[in-house]
Amino acid sequence: MTEQAPGGFDVNQPNVARMYDYYLGGKNHFPADRAAAERVIELSYGYVRETVQENRAFLRRAVRYLAAECGVRRFLDLGAGLPTQGNVHEIALQEAPDSLVTYVDNDAVVAAHARALLEGDPRVRFLEGDLRRPEEVVAAASASGLIFDRPVALLLVACLHFVPDEEDPEGVVAAYRELLPSGSYVVVSHVCSDPVPEAMAAAGGVYGRANAPFEARPAARIARFFDGFDLVEPGVVPLNEWRPEPGALPLRGDFLPILGGVGRRP
Ligand SMILES: C[S@@+](CC[C@H](N)C(=O)[O-])C[C@H]1O[C@@H](n2cnc3c(N)ncnc32)[C@H](O)[C@@H]1O
Known about the structure:
With 266 residues, the chain is an alpha/beta fold.
């Protein structure tokens, strides 16, 4: 029998947002999420823990860079995930209190937690939506106050690897690019299959039972998400190499299987 939690969601199917929360050491997960996440940790020889920590650190640095150094005041965070430490609105508002932040995710659990956390601040909104539908997402964000009449930072962080090839992830990003005003930025991070292709394929098998499929991609494919954007230095790199803070600790593992970067729409 399917066990339903009070919010009406299935707790027996591993859920990609809750598995990610488990990797990060959060508290919002159920036994099915933990079992699947533990299997991925095992298959990745533990690399997934460092990967998610570095992903969050990259996201914080990129938002700080865009707010402080590029003057961006509008942030649209797609596949936002469960609230955790150092959320996008906290970083952006710390740098620039006049920032507007809209979060989008298609997950009911994320929606419930995000709405509870964000209630009361008119500068921050959460929308339930599917990032694979750029026009709908942009229309909903605009209707809720994040109007695309000046540069926007579009965050696609650790979520495009949940968009399978059949759904044309590069085409999705290109559609957003055409909707963004000139001077906007895109931030992408994506799990890379190059260092350990077999382990990544095995992890994909575990996610095959989850609520979204997972597909790590080679570096050459990840670079294509930036087609039509001018890459900000240092380009598309392992996330720990993207503008590290002074005194950043070296990696614990031999490599980091997640790449990303920031691009500017000319
Ligand atoms: C690994 S989490 C990443 C969270 C956050 N962006 C970060 O990097 O810390 C991926 C998130 O993408 C969301 N997601 C996956 N497919 C999606 C889709 N088609 N539309 C909207 N959100 C999606 C999941 O629900 C999950 O919350």
